[in-house]
Amino acid sequence: MAPAGAKRGVLERLDAGEVVIGDGGFVFALEKRGYVKAGPWTPEAAAENPEAVRQLHREFLRAGSTVMQTFTFYASDDKLVNRGHTQRFTGQQINEAACDLAREVANEGDALVAGGISQTPAYLSRKNEGEVKAIFKKQIDVFIQKNVDFLIAEYFEHVEEAEWAVQVLRTTGKPVAATLCIGPEGDLNGVSPGDCAVKLVKAGAHIVGINCHFDPETCVKTVKMMKAGVEKAGLKAHYMSQPLAFHTPDCNRQGFIDLPEFPFSLEPRILIRWDMQRYAREAYIAGIRYIGGCCGFEPYHIRALAEELAPERGFLPVGSEKHGNWGSGLEMHTKPWVRARARRDYWEKQKPASGRPYCPSMSSPDGWGVTKGHADLMQQKEATSKEQLKVLFDKANKCH
Amino acid sequence: MAPAGAKRGVLERLDAGEVVIGDGGFVFALEKRGYVKAGPWTPEAAAENPEAVRQLHREFLRAGSTVMQTFTFYASDDKLVNRGHTQRFTGQQINEAACDLAREVANEGDALVAGGISQTPAYLSRKNEGEVKAIFKKQIDVFIQKNVDFLIAEYFEHVEEAEWAVQVLRTTGKPVAATLCIGPEGDLNGVSPGDCAVKLVKAGAHIVGINCHFDPETCVKTVKMMKAGVEKAGLKAHYMSQPLAFHTPDCNRQGFIDLPEFPFSLEPRILIRWDMQRYAREAYIAGIRYIGGCCGFEPYHIRALAEELAPERGFLPVGSEKHGNWGSGLEMHTKPWVRARARRDYWEKQKPASGRPYCPSMSSPDGWGVTKGHADLMQQKEATSKEQLKVLFDKANKCH
Amino acid sequence: MAPAGAKRGVLERLDAGEVVIGDGGFVFALEKRGYVKAGPWTPEAAAENPEAVRQLHREFLRAGSTVMQTFTFYASDDKLVNRGHTQRFTGQQINEAACDLAREVANEGDALVAGGISQTPAYLSRKNEGEVKAIFKKQIDVFIQKNVDFLIAEYFEHVEEAEWAVQVLRTTGKPVAATLCIGPEGDLNGVSPGDCAVKLVKAGAHIVGINCHFDPETCVKTVKMMKAGVEKAGLKAHYMSQPLAFHTPDCNRQGFIDLPEFPFSLEPRILIRWDMQRYAREAYIAGIRYIGGCCGFEPYHIRALAEELAPERGFLPVGSEKHGNWGSGLEMHTKPWVRARARRDYWEKQKPASGRPYCPSMSSPDGWGVTKGHADLMQQKEATSKEQLKVLFDKANKCH
Amino acid sequence: MAPAGAKRGVLERLDAGEVVIGDGGFVFALEKRGYVKAGPWTPEAAAENPEAVRQLHREFLRAGSTVMQTFTFYASDDKLVNRGHTQRFTGQQINEAACDLAREVANEGDALVAGGISQTPAYLSRKNEGEVKAIFKKQIDVFIQKNVDFLIAEYFEHVEEAEWAVQVLRTTGKPVAATLCIGPEGDLNGVSPGDCAVKLVKAGAHIVGINCHFDPETCVKTVKMMKAGVEKAGLKAHYMSQPLAFHTPDCNRQGFIDLPEFPFSLEPRILIRWDMQRYAREAYIAGIRYIGGCCGFEPYHIRALAEELAPERGFLPVGSEKHGNWGSGLEMHTKPWVRARARRDYWEKQKPASGRPYCPSMSSPDGWGVTKGHADLMQQKEATSKEQLKVLFDKANKCH
């Protein structure tokens, strides 16, 4: 195993025209495995159940990921407290443990470690630039001390906050990627994807793009708008997409959080591996070279990206030793009519049934039209009280 | 950690009226994690990637499983060869490693180890009773040497072969469970569920039921028919169900293997956790006390069973520390309209959308009406040849 | 135009192996045209708007119907009063007008006139055999006076009442057909389709079968069960089906009335013309020779039956001068991609979309498990009172 | 019956703020009744089967239509020849008969007669302004001679041709309405709805709007864009919508003709009466006062419009004597659970099932990207030859 320093960096790879495969979504995958609590979504598992986090890193590595993102989502002290996390571990302990796990597994292959920060409750509660930047600064200290390979500012609904994040990240001298969780309609202040991208590049981001909130089709479409904006402005950047592994044709501006199925009934929307191969191809054609995933992406989804782009990359991921190309593993199946499915043509054209004839195919998103600064969005340290919940339930019932 | 001998056995628990929670499906879960190849479906990971298998056992234990099934599905030498498995490990090595992993994790909690055998290619290829029983015998030797707590004969499409398996298993003196992979229409020879159950009990099974091939609703319905048959015959048994985690309203007699989505496009059919709570309740009401899962069951599905039956069992699984009852974890969510989903009423009534408006909700199963002894089902050691595949593809195209 | 007497009778045709094409559903078609009120469903239009009824008869004649059923559904005096019909016309006036209209149009082609009676509120309210038969007798007097060609007892949920009807009808000397509105599960007293058919044949029916309540697929399946029963009993009969033009895969024993969409939201379920051709072929193969329709059948649906069976019958209906076989009329369409649809292969394989992504594909039927004699089913002369409705609404809300 | 002259004209009514209810779609309704051939879609029935056309006019009048549109769609001589119509009737005979029928029925109530012209094959074949206008002129001669009350230029895909039509129509001195069959994306030359409307008003149209090609939701949305355009330009007009009675969420720019279900499998998309009430309300709120329908609209659909707007108009249509408001007619139904559906709340919230679990909810439109002037769109007098069809079929197969 080579030391981290010996590996080629993310920009070196992208500048050379190579494809960088990201990893998948830790909070959703670990929630299903029993180590993350839906609602708070905090990453204490890095310190509490390191073997589970390590195993997931390994599965993504095996699937072809060339980036191990530290499992540090929502890991600032204020968020941990805010989300009701019992104080068995400090934010610093969690962040450090997450960096060590990512590095340990990255060293088992040709992967890089990326430290990630994301939008803050502070911004939604109208804290000012200085206050928000101070929060970012504190988180980054651990990343620098642990010497991650590059940094990602991800999951921002407002480009303004993302610019602040990029500015802080650039002070480290590390390569910086920045992704918003927006769709073609733009950020929650109405800034278009093209303008968002220009702002991020001007703030110093080397790689810009989209993560979370929408399905691959929507994310690729949005990154294309970002790329068009950057090129029109005469600027240069690399492009990145890390979408959901859920189909979201029925989302509005706020993305999948507004779908009534979020977060516990999204299963019928999960993308199949062949959807993922289509995504990888379309992203590649669109000029995106950092291609990964977010919530819902399991190791086999990442493997599908790496398999689709194997001709361009020149190699298959290790995990493909357990996967026949386009269903060819079925050639050995017991039943002849299943053997007859061992072909690309079969899987590519299929329209998979939901098995749920009593359910619709699309939903009407919630979303009460509130955004940054609205009283309903102000952060509070305590769980919502019974009285507050009652008010919310009544409000929800009226909306349906 | 108590030694295995100190734990109360499976029959002791069932006789006392307790609920035994089974585990979920290893081949499907590990295929998605990158350690099992779809098509062959063999369990060499037990020896090849033990940390991945151990981790999955641990997740099921944490989710509330009181049984660790050895990951030995299709692990007889002839199958391993037949499925093209490269001979890095002998069948014996795999079976032994699987037993050790199951025992290691079982000892981390109050769980039992079950050794499992399933239907043989030999039976479909018309080998006689002696030949088939000899195959079972060989596999069981390892289980006895490793001193598993009880034995399961599972995944049989023909009750005749299952009876042979039960007869061999009973020679060990261990408790014996037997599950068929059939639906209300009965086994592939047309024997009704009630008659199948009577035959299994008479062959010596202590626990009878259904696993795989159909969704929970269908499996519970079928086990009810088995129970009625056993009671009508004046016999006694315990009952067990380990269904798919996929909705299969459109299956015919052969189950989900005939669905055109098998095995790579089943995602839209995955049951959500609330479906699982309904299953646990209905199984319990039907008098089933060994309640688990098969293909598609992930740790959070098992946890849902344990949570639904917590009132009856008197305790929650360890994994529930990361799960709010009926969505209550959402009380801490940032968006108020998501907080409004923190209630049972919301999730119980929901009809989740597929997000796939261009896809249907049901499929027409394949299935060419061939069964045991048909030339198309004869096992061959080599992968199907290109010419053979061409014939199958043409046959398939004509059927659509 | 030949006088009625000169035409070959229905039994003469069926005995000769000919196909008799029935007509479609008057109450549903005329409700949509504005002449029948949903709820009461009474046929006063025969007297009130004769031109509308005559026009519909003519359209069915043109479409290929060889039977004009008198529009006398629910036309006994007690029903007319019971259903709140204002007394502009007596039952006798309506019945006479209906007979005259049917005869007038029948004489414009080679069609026969059939007088129809159906189940009585009296039977559900537990009147005895004599009382129920007296009601039938009164209605039949008009048919005899107007000299219809044959008689149909249709839309019976209980075979017992249908037997009484057949016995009364046979006293007239006219040929008698009898159809139940039941599915494969049998009549509402649990008598199987086979046994029902035997009872009807023994009561004197020349033609037996199924009408209304279920889709063509279900009705053909049920008539096949009736035929098997009659043949097993060593009896002989002709067979008949007049199904709904609505897909009803989700119905239970009571049929489409229990579907939540009945009667105002059934549009998405309407069969297309190609579905009808499949029905005609399957009915023919099943040995059914009197093939028609019930609620939902429009003239073009009947034409599709006549077109599918044109090879057997030796002629196309008049209305086919305005219909290209299997879409061939599109050869003249302006857009080339629509011209490319001018072929059987295209239409036969199509899976038509609902255009309703927010709606499911199946519904859960209502049905409160009440049947003949239950207090909720006792007929009352007045409209349900507000208080009674309130009770029903509450009951309904609890069921969902 | 008052002479036509005694009635208040269409502009008089609209200027007074009254609602004018249009009629429904004759070609689709009469195709299903057996009098119009799909493909050619020509209106020879006006001369050939006048009783059928008269009856449909009457049904719309009874349903509340205040406009009887002459059934003269595609009734120019060249089109009649082009569409293979056998020369039993000249175009002039058909046009005259259609005018007489419309007037006869209009005189039975308070309805006006509108003469309609629509886009020409000539325009698509690149004839020049003079040639196209000459075709319009010839058709209008009959309308003037028969003294229709006003004129409608409808079903134009290119606003340029519609402007020519309006210019010709204005020479008559009659009020002129003009509707395009476009959606929010604009006409087939890419002119936006707002700009289209401005052009039509400037050409002299008194009433502008949308007909055909899209569902009510899309049409109302497009008319709103037209209205915004007209108002922004400082102009004045009345607004009109006559949408399809089919749900078309999956259409692209060309509308429902490109849907693979056109024209024979559209049934699952048919709007229910409650959808129509929502349409009427939304159109009214949008400021549209001429509210009618096009293909797929049956009499009961028009009645639903008139019932929804009865409070504004001050009266119910005659046909409502056979229709209970919001299902109230069900209060008299035999089954108590059907009586429980006699309420607005029930029908308004319902999501009707398709009864087609093997079908999707949306389709991918065809459409080969050809428009005006393309060789594939050049009109030819003969039916497409077998060789030409073969080419089209192959092209179609490649597109799927």
Structure description:
- Chains A, B, C, D: Its cofactor is Zn(2+).
- Chain A has 400 residues and is an alpha/beta fold.
- Chain A has a single domain, classed as Homocysteine-binding-like domain (TIM Barrel).
- Chain A is built from 17 helices and eight strands.
- Chain A has an eight-stranded parallel sheet with strand order 1-8-7-6-5-4-3-2.
- In chain A, strand 6 (207-211), helix 11 (216-232) and strand 7 (238-242) form a beta-alpha-beta unit.
- Chain A starts with 9 loop residues before the first helix and ends with a helix.
- The model of chain A has no long low-confidence stretch (mean pLDDT 91).
- At the C-D interface, helix 2, helix 4, helix 13, helix 15 and helix 17 of C face helix 2, helix 4, helix 13, helix 15 and helix 17 of D.
